[in-house]
Design brief:
Blueprint lengths: L6 H9 L5 E4 L23 H6 L4 E4 L5 H12 L3 E4 L10 H7 L4 E6 L14 H8 L1 H4 L16 H24 L4 E5 H6 L4 H9 L4 E3 L2 E4 L7 E3 L5 E3 L7 H13 L9 H8 L14 H19 L3 H10 L5 E3 L2 H6 L1 H5 L3 E6 L4 E6 L24 H5 L3
Parallel strand pairs: 1-2, 3-4, 4-5
Antiparallel strand pairs: 6-7, 8-9, 9-10, 11-12
Helix pairs in contact: 1-7, 10-11, 11-12
Length: about 400
């Protein structure tokens, strides 16, 4: 069923090969009215947001304010394996309890902001309020806490809730394979968002410690070392974990030497001390042992110096080649056009006959050797597959 938080879970199932039908009101899903639109021209079949959430699906329109519409919906559900809806009760008196009584193998996935039976069940909710209430907004931001926290873009609450909906549906399918019985799955999107907050929630629950936002790093009660470095082209790279083993420090010294930068980094002497050790550096000793602290500070300065002399992409590749984890922080369009993405098969041309053009879609992000995913199909036009309603009466 077309709803506030339902599209993403159903899209994942479509990517995995399921035949997915999105049931919309006659005027179309609310998501069809959301910008951006193709060529900035609004239209029920031109919302790029709807496209992104409904790739590979079919569309039928049903008027749930009419008896014939409710009857059509009941027929569709009788032939379905899974229903994904914004609750366990739909318009026209269609409920999980009633439908499951005659369809014991039915799996019904309810995806709501606060979960079924919540005292907040009738409260309004948006992507922003759910992310704020669930915790991700608290986690996201910068070391400078005079700057407000950040909300991730791209309907993150819907994506998080949708992924849990898909996971729940797949687990229920496995259960049904063994028992023949379906079940009701209750996805609480706020709770789903909360468990993505990593350490933040349990640090508070266990010892009432407040985790602090840190730029590009895990929120934690105490500050951690910065991992972003500014590169020669103005882009940033993230460096992740610094060297710890003696051979890693040797490779870092060799890299500095190749770039003729050792003279610019007096702290190289500390890298040499680490390379001469017989055991890895103990990160827990940072701040307590002067030599360890100096070594790790030197490693950080070495990375900053190297990055400052190279474009972000070049720095990323060179780091990976030397066994140092790193990543170039690129704008979304540059990341999508990267040759790795192209080689990985993430560029899939999809024909849009109604627009007279072909559009490049991102491919599926996983590859199964025994059950390869089908290439994406464009999102459905409004009511494009209403003939399925007639077939369901046969």
């Amino acid at each position: 069923m077309s709803g506030q938080f339902t599209p993403v879970g159903a899209r994942v199932l479509a990517e995995l090969g399921a035949e997915v039908i999105v049931v919309e009101p006659p005027q179309g899903s609310q998501h069809r009215a959301r910008p951006p639109f193709v060529d900035a021209e609004p239209g029920v079949d031109r919302s790029l947001r709807f496209w992104g959430q409904n790739v590979g699906k079919r569309s039928v329109t049903v008027d749930l304010e009419s008896e014939s519409g409710v009857a059509a919906l009941r027929r569709l559900i009788r032939g379905a394996d899974i229903v994904i809806a914004g609750g366990d009760r739909l318009a026209g008196g269609v409920t999980y309890r009633d439908t499951a009584a005659d369809h014991r193998s039915l799996i019904w996935v309810s995806v709501t902001p606060f979960g079924l039976g919540s005292v907040r069940a009738d409260h309004p909710a948006t992507d922003l309020t759910v992310l704020a209430g669930g915790g991700p907004v608290w986690n996201c931001g910068y070391d400078d806490h005079s700057i407000p926290p950040m909300r991730g873009s791209g309907d993150q609450a819907s994506n998080i809730g949708g992924m849990y909906a898909a996971i729940g549906a797949l687990i229920a399918l496995s259960h049904r394979d063994h028992t023949g019985v379906g079940q009701l799955i209750d996805v609480n999107v706020t709770a789903a968002c909360n468990v993505t907050c990593e350490q933040t929630t349990y640090h508070w629950l266990v010892n009432q410690a407040v985790c602090m936002r840190q730029t590009g790093r895990h929120a934690y009660p105490t500050p951690s070392s910065e991992v972003q470095v500014r590169c020669a082209d103005g882009h940033y790279a993230t460096t992740g974990v610094l060297p710890r083993k003696p051979e890693e420090f040797s490779r870092m010294i060799a890299w500095l030497s190749e770039l003729e930068l050792t003279e610019e980094l007096p702290e190289t002497v500390f890298l040499e001390m680490a390379a001469a050790r017989t055991a890895p550096v103990d990160l827990a000793s940072i701040g307590e042992d002067d030599e360890t602290t100096a070594i790790m500070s030197a490693a950080r300065e070495a990375i900053r110096l190297i990055a400052s002399r190279m474009p972000a992409k070049e720095f990323f590749i060179a780091s990976q080649q030397r066994g140092f984890p790193a990543g170039a922080i690129l704008p979304p369009d540059e990341a999508f056009e990267d040759e790795h993405m192209v080689t990985r098969g993430m560029h899939v041309p999809v024909e849009h006959a109604e627009l007279g053009r072909t559009v490049v879609y991102p491919g599926v992000p996983y590859s199964f050797s025994a059950s390869p995913a089908s290439p994406p199909r464009r999102a459905p036009l409004l009511g494009e597959h209403n003939f399925l309603l007639e077939e369901s009466t046969k």
